[in-house]
């Protein structure tokens, strides 16, 4: 439905001015509903039209939306380009609040890209402009960003000073939602400096509030942070076996909820953190499920690495004041600088390509060694999932009806594969459910969409056939796994395992 709406929105011939505003407003709605992929698609259509119309205020707002969305998607290179373009327009407008806002965004992007020293320069400028506005909410926001940055630089005292000031300002303004965000930031700092019990108590107090709001981004991050804090506590010296397991089970619940949220929000970076946490938390509780989460983590990590966005940030390392100074240089100096920058970029790209290839090779070898489940093991992967009740006692997460549902789902998919067809609608019908009911129930139980669940089964069957039936050609394996042609199967296999079926056979041999 979302894709259909986007197609109609981008293709229907309407008046130019109407189209500009429709696209602009649609990107804003997608951004506010945290549908970042859709916001970027529509926003990048709206931006050049806004520029053609000379609508500077709307252009700046669109650039701001695109920068934040791209940052949420972990595309830091593009996010920084949009944020700097927005900041340039804000400086021309002379609006100190807008200048502070875009400087804050630039600093936050650098911090997210693991370059806190660069981020600190922009955020300190942002605070200076925020102080000029006298707006407490703007000052609190910037103090929160500075707190995270100082913490990333291991300046704990400064981090606590900034976040305590932000908390006081939010309380003064009576902004309950923002207050919870600042408390979450403080809890992260407390966990990092060893005050983990205080941290988990703070997280436990704010997570229920986030669940009642539409701020899924803050909820997902808090769940990840709380889960990691519990994992750290479970590894403390002197902890009992029972207490260790209870903390690991609680961490699993937090990470699983976060992974589902992040997938729905198109937020791969935080989903990757959740999958890594699940892999670690389930390592002793349920090794089979742990291996599945490790594979999901590796796929996300590979996808993010292929974007190579963080590496390209080196070209933007000049702070804002230096950028302005460079604009006053002579044309000769500009030319020399451009030549030097181009040379540096080419060198960085060459180095990045070499490193990427080495990492991909190592990742492929690691996956082939780790993915060893048969279909029977896959069928039982959620059988042993447990959680804890209010008294800390373990109980089965899945009811017998849920287990029966998953077993029937697996059997029906296997039958469809044997008949060389896989269809979600027919699968739902075979289970006496509507397609939407089936999707919701499967997603609630496994955290996966039907398509990703089916792909997992297909790939495990493909691997099994390649390992045990050397007489089969790749095409015959593809047909037995429900693919109509070899090329589609090969692409799916490579996305899942990192190498083609032919390369897999060569390595096995």
Biggest sheet, spatial arrangement of strands: 1-2
Query: What string gives the helices and strands in order?
Result: HHHHHHHHHHHHHHHHHHEEHHHHHHH
Give the CA-CA distance, first to last residue: 46 Å
Total of DSSP H or I helical runs spanning 4+ residues: 25
* Computed Rg: 25 Å
Estimate the strand proportion.
under 5%
In the predicted model, the low-confidence regions spanning at least 5 consecutive residues are 1-15, 308-340, 360-375, 381-390
What spatial form do the alpha-carbon principal axes imply? Answer: globular
DSSP strand count: 2
Average pLDDT metric: 77
What is the topology?
Elements: H1 2-11, H2 16-32, H3 36-53, H4 56-72, H5 76-93, H6 96-112, H7 116-133, H8 136-152, H9 156-173, H10 176-192, H11 196-211, H12 216-234, H13 241-264, H14 268-281, H15 287-307, H16 320-327, H17 331-370, H18 375-379, E1 386-388, E2 394-396, H19 400-418, H20 424-430, H21 435-446, H22 450-468, H23 474-480, H24 486-497, H25 501-508
Antiparallel strand pairs: 1-2
Helix pairs in contact: 2-3, 2-4, 3-4, 4-5, 4-6, 5-6, 6-7, 6-8, 7-8, 8-9, 8-10, 9-10, 10-11, 10-12, 11-12, 12-13, 12-14, 13-14, 14-15, 15-17, 20-21, 22-24
Protein model, in words:
- The structure is a single chain.
- The chain is mainly α.
- The chain is built from 25 helices and two strands.
- Strands 1-2 form a two-stranded antiparallel sheet.
- Strand 1 (386-388) and strand 2 (394-396) form a beta hairpin.
- Helix 2 (16-32) packs parallel to helix 4 and helix 5 (76-93) packs antiparallel against helix 6 (96-112).
- The longest helix is centred in the last third of the chain and has 40 residues, at 331-370.
- It is globular and about 75 Å long.
- The chain starts with a helix and ends with a helix.
- Mean pLDDT is 77; it is low at 1-15, 308-340, 360-375 and 381-390.
């Amino acid at each position: 439905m979302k894709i259909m709406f986007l197609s109609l929105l981008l293709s229907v011939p309407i008046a130019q001015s109407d189209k500009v505003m429709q696209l602009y407003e649609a990107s804003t709605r997608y951004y506010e509903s945290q549908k970042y992929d859709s916001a970027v698609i529509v926003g990048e259509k709206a931006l050049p039209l806004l520029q053609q119309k000379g609508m500077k205020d709307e252009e700046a707002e669109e650039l701001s939306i695109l920068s934040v969305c791209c940052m949420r998607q972990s595309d830091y290179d593009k996010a920084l380009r949009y944020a700097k373009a927005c900041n340039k327009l804000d400086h021309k407008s002379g609006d100190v609040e807008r200048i502070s806002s875009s400087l804050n965004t630039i600093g936050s992007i650098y911090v997210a890209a693991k370059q806190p020293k660069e981020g600190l320069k922009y955020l300190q400028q942002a605070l200076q402009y925020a102080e000029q506005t006298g707006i407490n909410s703007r000052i609190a926001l910037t103090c929160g960003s500075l707190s995270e940055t100082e913490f990333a630089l291991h300046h704990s005292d400064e981090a606590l000073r900034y976040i305590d000031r932000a908390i006081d300002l939010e309380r003064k303004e009576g902004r309950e939602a923002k207050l919870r965000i600042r408390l979450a930031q403080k809890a992260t700092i407390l966990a990092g400096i060893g005050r983990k019990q205080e941290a988990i108590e703070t997280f436990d107090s704010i997570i229920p509030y986030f669940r009642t709001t539409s701020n899924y981004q803050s909820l997902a991050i808090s769940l990840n942070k709380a889960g990691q804090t519990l994992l750290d506590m479970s590894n403390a010296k002197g902890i009992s076996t029972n207490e260790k397991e209870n903390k690991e089970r609680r961490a699993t619940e937090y990470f699983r909820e976060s992974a589902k949220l992040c997938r729905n929000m198109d937020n791969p970076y935080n989903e990757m953190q959740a999958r890594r946490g699940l892999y670690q938390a389930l390592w002793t509780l349920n090794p089979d499920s742990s291996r599945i989460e490790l594979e999901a983590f590796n796929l996300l990590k590979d996808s993010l690495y292929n974007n190579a966005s963080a590496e390209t940030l080196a070209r933007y390392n000049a702070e804002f004041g230096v950028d302005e100074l460079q604009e006053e240089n002579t044309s000769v100096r500009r030319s020399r600088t451009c030549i030097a920058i181009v040379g540096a970029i080419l060198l960085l790209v060459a180095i990045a390509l070499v490193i990427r290839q080495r990492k991909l090779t190592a990742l492929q070898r690691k996956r082939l060694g780790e993915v060893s489940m048969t279909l029977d093991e896959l069928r039982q992967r959620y059988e042993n999932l447990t959680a804890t009740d209010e008294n800390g006692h373990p109980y089965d997460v899945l009811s017998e009806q849920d287990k029966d549902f998953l077993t029937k789902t697996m059997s029906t998919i296997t039958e469809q594969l044997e008949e060389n067809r896989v269809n979600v609608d027919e699968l739902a019908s075979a289970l006496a459910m509507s397609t939407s009911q089936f999707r919701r129930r499967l997603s609630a139980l496994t955290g996966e969409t039907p398509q990703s669940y089916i792909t997992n089964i297909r790939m495990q069957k493909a691997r099994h056939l390649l390992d045990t039936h050397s007489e089969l050609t790749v095409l015959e394996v593809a047909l037995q796994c429900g693919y109509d042609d070899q090329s589609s199967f090969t692409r799916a296999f490579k996305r899942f395992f990192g190498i083609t079926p032919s390369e897999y056979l060569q390595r096995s041999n």
